[in-house]
Amino acid sequence: MPSETRAGTEPARIYITTPLYYVNAEPHLGSAYTILICDTIARFHRQRGVETFFLTGTDEHGDKIAQAAAAANETPKAYADRISAAFRSTWEACGLTYDRFIRTTDADHVRIVRAILQQVYDAGDIYFSSYGGLYCTGCERFYTEKELVDGKCPDHRTAPEWIEEENYFFRMGKYQERLIAALHARPELVRPERYRNEVLAMLREPLEDLCISRPKARLTWGIELPFDDRFVTYVWFDALINYVTAVRELGAERYAQLWPVANHFIAKDILKPHAVFWPTMLMAAGLPLYQHLNVHGYWTVNGDKMSKSLGNVVRPLDMKERYGMDAFRYVLLRESVFGLDADFREEALVTRINADLANNLGNLVSRTLSMQQRYFAGAVQPRSDPRPEDDALRATFEAAGVEVDEQVCALMLARALEAIWRAADHANKYIVETAPFTLAKDAAALPRVGTILHNLLEALRVTAQLAAPFIPESCERIRDLLNLPADALALPGPAWGEAFAPGHVVQAPVSLFPRIETPA
Ligand code: MSP
Predict the structure, then answer these.
(1) Which segments of the chain have a pLDDT < 50?
(2) Which pTM value belongs to this model?
(3) What's the CATH code of the domain at 389?
């Protein structure tokens, strides 16, 4: 999804990935946020006829998982099966439209990781050496003294252990200059820019080689190195390769088409593995780099970091049950700016739902359909005698369409939603200005009422079309209420005024987004 993409010139394909979530925690607001962004962007492109491949899955190897399994009294495989299934069933219940759910324990992935390891080893970029270093089990990586804060891991706030052992190393340092050159040659490789700058800052220090093995004496839960069965692969070297596995398995032709348009979506917590380890691994394996690494911020809950111990973990299925999936999607996408941190508060969510969904969009649907029902028994009337206010309404929706394209391609999903809701707001004001409910009292004015309502049905259709990637279920319900065929929300679709033949009957209104009453 190059940012230079504009309406009508979308790439013919896009490959979208979420991180592979660790199976040591169940799905929560944070993991849901990334996959919701990916789902929205995948739907957006699909709707425009772009071939999309959307990947998610689970990261199952390594110390962290082995320890979580031991704590749960299960074998690592049984434990990973259970939590991975929980991710899958949650995402399915959330209606997410990924094409493959990959597990790092899948046989095809294990095979490709081993093939790439062997290739990089044969090329001389993996060597055997002894190394002593400060190791954080939480991060599953060695830290340099400089990276520690008060001698502790900045993420886990625990002191790392000194570990000395023989291991295999990837000559990552060798690729430092090439990576810097790539970041300069392709400024949008890592975006938004603040994260590209962070990566460039990391690369101002000499880039050390990366320890990519763990001796089986310490850890057996991993992919065995193809060239030394006394070791398993470091979990990041294994997991990152999933992005290649999934498309390689589609055959040479689709792989060649999809890999160059790979768009990874992650949060800032895993910037270094994705912006430093991964591109240098790709260079060593002789593979092209991804198209974009898209990095978003972190959610807190009522100002606090979300954690099991604080008991403030927000679960997507609870939100779905309480407010509906679309309302949850809408609020997460509307209340965050891609790249910046955001704070989740249930009161703010309720306010948003009531204002934007129940009042603005919900009212537009119910007022339009109830007037259509009351004055014309649901039958659409011809549009006649256009007035300037009719043209203004059409112009607003056309402009919203252009803006949605631009903003989504620039990852500014909240701005895209703002543009759609500004248009819906205009339609509500158009009802007030043109006052069809007053005109309808005079039989001679009924043709004008028919025209106004026809314009409003168009406004509903285009709103549903533009909002479909964000709140898909509700837009399908609007389409259904309009009695339009299944493909009616695809883009570009008919021109304004051409979607409804006179005599086409639309349904009576239902309440799409009930107002949420909060206890006083
Ligand atoms: N397994 C690695 C990723 C390997 S990718 C080859 C991993 N897993 S994770 O389960 O910890 O997921 C981290 C990701 O979850 C973040 O990058 C982000 O996508 C999402 N989030 C987890 N908590 C989050 C927030 N509080 N806020 C926003 N996103 C968050 O790292």
Answers:
(1) 1-10
(2) 0.94
(3) 1.10.730.10
